[in-house]
Design goal:
Elements lengths: L3 E9 L3 E6 L2 E6 L2 H6 L6 E11 L2 E7 L2 H11 L6 H22 L2 H5 L6 H11 L3 H6 L27 H14 L4 H14 L5 H12 L4
Length: 217
């Protein structure tokens, strides 16, 4: 299994890139969102990867974060969701958006992805809603990949980076869990709070989520 590729960006296409790793070129399929975030041709690049293996096919899919890759794997576990649909959903919503949509039961957001119909979108939400809190919690332990500054290597540890809203959501989830809230209700509250204030840091997210969880009336 190839878990990560670090090398030089050789070519960009509509749905994939060619990465030169020590003189070997790897074709890696990526979402529109990931493609837009990549550097220019000739520059250093690093992507986490997932290998799709079929009888007549070997395809690599690339992701900027381990969180995004985990959502890709979970999405593909849903009947009717293949690699193309998974990449469309991630390209439309991003990893955090997928987690938020599933936690909130917002299947209409999933349906906004090209090629995803309402029945499939509802199935995604129904089948993954119990897994959403655990995946969202990964946001506090994984970081985005960075460019490879030295000799290319195929598998390596994540490159530390700045704290993202994903890690803030993960920390808020952990805090609510410590306060006794269940994973599902905590995930829903954090997802709603993050949707209303995307730039909020952990303390603000916790306060907002607690207000949402407070008894009404």
């Amino acid at each position: 299994m190839i878990g990560k590729l670090s090398g030089r960006l050789d070519h960009r296409a509509a749905d994939h890139v060619l990465i030169d790793v020590g003189g070997v070129g790897y074709i890696v399929h990526v979402s529109e969102r990931t493609l837009a975030a990549l550097p220019g041709v000739g520059e250093a690049i690093a992507l986490y990867t997932d290998l799709l293996v079929r009888e007549d096919l070997l395809q690599l899919y690339g992701f900027l974060t381990l969180l995004e890759r985990e959502w890709h794997r979970l999405l593909m576990s849903v009947q009717g969701i293949g690699a193309k649909a998974s990449m469309a959903i991630l390209g439309t919503l991003g990893a955090e958006g997928v987690g938020r949509a599933i936690a909130l039961g917002d299947w209409a957001a999933i349906k906004a992805a090209p090629g995803v119909g309402p029945k499939i979108a509802q199935r995604v939400v129904n089948e993954l809603k119990d897994k959403a809190p655990g995946v969202m919690a990964l946001g506090g332990t994984v970081q985005a990949t960075g460019p490879a500054p030295a000799a290319p290597a195929m598998v390596s540890a994540p490159v530390p980076g700045r704290v993202s809203s994903a890690s803030a959501q993960a920390e808020a989830l952990s805090a609510l869990g410590n306060l006794g809230y269940g994973p599902s209700e905590a995930a829903q509250a954090v997802a709603q709070a993050a949707g209303e204030a995307p730039e909020a840091e952990t303390p603000a997210l916790i306060r907002a989520a607690l207000k949402l969880l407070a008894p009404k009336g």
